């Protein structure tokens, strides 16, 4: 598939788009979270079309004839990129010159680096707190440090077993669906408010060049969105800060960017690939940790209904919750992306605020 970049495509597509200025641009977003972001910028100008149903996972799908027509008729298409919506690679490679394809993964912040920076910050805070504790209760601090080391050793051992387990189906799934975490990179970009800001700016600039008559409105919408996003981000950081030490399991490893931004960290994922059930050994390891009360919550996802979570927590004091990385229940309308972030935070908060002691 040819490599698409915004700069190169703008040079060839903007001229062809001039001919459609008598009508509104036909703007398409491949998945729901991206549509929510694009709609923040196009509000009052045009309603972007959604290619995949809101509750559809981008990991695995087949295009219908009507969806193929939507692609072919679009003036501008926003997608994450070839490593996320893999089923779109071939149809998007066949687009003609009148369609501007914008790959949002280009220029994304490195998710692995974000987690490293967060871990370093947490380690620094823990070190300072430990030093202060030593000044008052040296013996107690020594005991706590010893317990902490044993806990970390146990955690590292469990994670090592998890990574090295012999479930071949999981390994095959990891190879097949590892596109969104290739080389440690998490392509669920929309879960990071910083990425939301970057994408919004890219959308505004792209549409301003493709549709200069509406540039003032696009830029006004962008300015309002950035202000609202900054305010909400501050509120969510305050709300989620008390939950930073809570242990939990997620259904699949999709939340790294949200977690790194808000100081959360899951203990593990139930499955590597959301389309496949975990191996028996992996499930047993999680079950053992739940019995030991290492976690307060296990999260499922609405795109993949399964009795697995209820089976894992049965007979324990661990709670369950639902996280929707696709924002399938977010109603269309103004401030949709902000409502999506608010809902994600609320879902974390509702389950992690409970105690299993």
TrEMBL record:
Signal peptide (residue range): 1-24
A biological-process GO annotation: zinc ion transport
Any GO molecular function: metal ion binding
Positions of the UniProt region annotated as Disordered: 114-184
InterPro entries according to UniProt: Bact_metal-bind_prot9, ZnuA-like
Domain of life according to the entry: Bacteria
Keywords: Ion transport, Signal, Transport, Zinc, Zinc transport
Family statement: Belongs to the bacterial solute-binding protein 9 family.
Annotated PANTHER family: HIGH-AFFINITY ZINC UPTAKE SYSTEM PROTEIN ZNUA (PTHR42953:SF3), HIGH-AFFINITY ZINC UPTAKE SYSTEM PROTEIN ZNUA-RELATED (PTHR42953)
Protein known as: High-affinity zinc uptake system protein ZnuA
Organism: Motiliproteus coralliicola
